Amino acid sequence: MTLAPDLVRRFEDALGPGGVIKEPEQLRVYDCDGLTGRRVVPSLVVLPETTEQVSAAVRLCNEAAIPFVARGAGTGLSGGALPVAEGIVISLARMSRILSVDSDRGRVVVQPGVANLDVTRAVAGDGFYYAPDPSSQQVCTIGGNVAENSGGAHCLKYGFTVNHVLAATVVLPDGEVVRLALGDPGPDLLGLFVGSEGTLGIATELTLRVLRRPEAVRTLLAGFPSADAAGAAVSGTIAAGIMPAAIEMMDRLTIDAAESAVGAGYPPGAEAVLIVELDGVTAQVEQDLAAVEEICRGNGAFGLHIAADDAERAAVWRGRKSAFAAMGRISPDYYVQDGVVPRTKLPEVLRRIAALSSEYGLRVGNVFHAGDGNLHPLVLYDGRVEGEPERAEELASAILEACLDAGGSLTGEHGVGSDKACSMPLMFGEADLETMHRVRRAFDPGGLSNPGKAFPTPRLCGEVPGPYRAHPLEKAGLAERL
Known about the structure:
alpha+beta, 5-stranded antiparallel β-sheet, globular
């Protein structure tokens, strides 16, 4: 859909020179996020640099009833930044400044386009770091992390993004600018906003909590003869009252991919590896490390290695952090799933995933935050083979249902987006979904802010619970072209 020339000119006036992208070939750059199997070319892309420009763009969208989608680095894996064909993308890439650093109070104020790792780099010299650490932390942005309530390896001990956001300047879906802060009177609107996937507005400034670096950090790598044995070591560690900063697990297929990509040096012959990181006061860390070693050996661990310094620690983590990208070494395409299961159900669910892999005739690599049961199965396929992309998506959905059957949840950190919207009724009843939707309507009665995400709609899912039959965009006849 082409927007009216006079409306495009109004966006150009509001955003300034170079602030609007309208050429068809350039618009295609924004047609998807990390979920590359779904693509929609937007009608326009705008590139604001200030809160005022974001507000102006949103007000124009509101006046003309044009849907809009905020976008950060485009690294999301749930289709959360999938554009709308007759709408605009509000790219926050130019809003990439660190506005202030207050080491005395342990906080940093940033724009949403700042890369996650750059927050730590900004405070490292003062002995601080930013705890949430998604695998894509070198490129993913804080705005996207806030939208999805992103996690990471060290969120087992330190919590997700929501636990580290102290305040946010937000442009609401009608263009109004508000400030939300931890401790505001009344409902926790800041907590509500974090993880709302762009459906309640756009954050333009964020105040983040940073932490002092711990006195000691020790990182242990262990190989296991089976995923069951590694899972037992995870359960044994938590049952012993030990709270590592991180416990990560990778299976044989993922290990092979990581070794091929970065030569991480994982134990040869391992069917699974664990990375266990402990931090805190030196005496406690050494005591816990000895206990974890004993638990691992008691579950058949071999090739145990404790990183001697920061360089060795980085090498251990390099394989884990590169796991997703490394799959490109062994498969032309892959589909990333993201579900959660109780820790005690890990072996059962992994066996179910293996059975589903055989049933669908597609390989599945498993890499996950084992400490909190957040699975990331990677379904491998070849998009050039007729029917394989569809079969991969079906297998990924079946894995998600297996997580739910085990008492888990739809997503741990990647969000629902457009990828899992149709699965929401598997976890939530009609009354639950209607309550969520009422909250969304309170912020966005026109349904313009990132439509088609997080909630099932007839366009995406066919017949759905009652409240969604009257979605504003459906009424307006726009959904068919989303």
